C-alpha cells in the first residue's frame, strides 16, 4: 500500500516538473506576454492592453509585430512594406509597387477623420534612401498615423530585430480578442 502511494506521488511530481518546464519554455520562447505602451496602435491596440506575442510564424504584410527599434526601444507596429517593396502614400492612400492597396484596418478611422489627413504623403525612397525596401528589412507604421513613431522616423527594421507577431489581447478582460492579420 505504501509503495503504491509513493509511486503515485512520484508520478505526480514528475508530471508537475515536466509541465512547469514546458510552460516556462513556451512563455519564454514561443508565447511572450507584453504590455502595450503608448497610443500609436490605437484603436486596434490601446495603451495598457496586454498581448501574447508568438515568434514562430512568417511575417506578412499588415501583421502587427513587436520589435526592437534602432533607437533601442521596443515597439508594436503594423508591417506595411516587405523586402523589395516600394511604398508611396499619396492623398491618404497606400501604393505598394505602384498598386493601390486598401488598408481595411483603417476604414473606421478614415470614416471619422473627414477634417484631416490620416497619413501624410511620402515616398519610401526619400525616407530610406533606396527605391525598394532592402532584403531582410520591413517598413512599419502605427495605426494611429498622426502620433506614431515608426519607419517614417527611424527607417526600416531588420528581420533580426523582430520579437514576434502580436496574436491575442488577453487583458483587460473586457477587451480580450484575437488579433487578425
TrEMBL record:
<dbReference type="InterPro" id="IPR019758">
    <property type="entry name" value="Pept_S26A_signal_pept_1_CS"/>
</dbReference>
<keyword id="KW-1133">Transmembrane helix</keyword>
<comment type="similarity">
    <text>Belongs to the peptidase S26 family.</text>
</comment>
<dbReference type="InterPro" id="IPR000223">
    <property type="entry name" value="Pept_S26A_signal_pept_1"/>
</dbReference>
<dbReference type="InterPro" id="IPR019533">
    <property type="entry name" value="Peptidase_S26"/>
</dbReference>
<dbReference type="Pfam" id="PF10502">
    <property type="entry name" value="Peptidase_S26"/>
</dbReference>
<feature type="transmembrane region" description="Helical">
    <location>
        <begin position="12"/>
        <end position="34"/>
    </location>
</feature>
<dbReference type="InterPro" id="IPR019757">
    <property type="entry name" value="Pept_S26A_signal_pept_1_Lys-AS"/>
</dbReference>
<keyword id="KW-0645">Protease</keyword>
<keyword id="KW-0812">Transmembrane</keyword>
<dbReference type="InterPro" id="IPR036286">
    <property type="entry name" value="LexA/Signal_pep-like_sf"/>
</dbReference>
<dbReference type="GO" id="GO:0009003">
    <property type="term" value="F:signal peptidase activity"/>
</dbReference>
<keyword id="KW-0378">Hydrolase</keyword>
<keyword id="KW-0472">Membrane</keyword>
<feature type="domain" description="Peptidase S26">
    <location>
        <begin position="10"/>
        <end position="171"/>
    </location>
</feature>
<protein>
    <recommendedName>
        <fullName>Signal peptidase I</fullName>
        <ecNumber>3.4.21.89</ecNumber>
    </recommendedName>
</protein>
